[in-house]
User: What shape does this take?
Amino acid sequence: MARPDFELGELREDDGGHRMTVGVPVDLRYLEGHFPGDPIVPGIAQLVIAERAVRRAHEDLGAPRGVRRLKFSARIDPGDELEIALTRTPGKVRFILYRGEVECSRGTLIYP
Assistant: This one.
């Protein structure tokens, strides 16, 4: 049986950028092996959230060719409700993942 994926909410415009909610299912498929007994959402899965959110907000962009200024500052647990903020500038989209007021991660996806 397939394990669930992230639950992306409605896309909203916000101060020249976009925001959307992100649900993290308790049995998220990316949790396997990260870490038994104390699961956390791994960094690569956080990049998946960012890339999917950008794809929804900016359909004209293809796949990112890189990432810069990536920072993980707070853990994300199964069951967390997150919000992602996106800001686009030429050739890049900056993202910040929040859990409430807590910034969990940030970075910049680079596009051709």
Strands lie at 7-8, 12-14, 17-23, 66-72, 81-89, 92-99, 102-110. The chain has a mean pLDDT of 94.
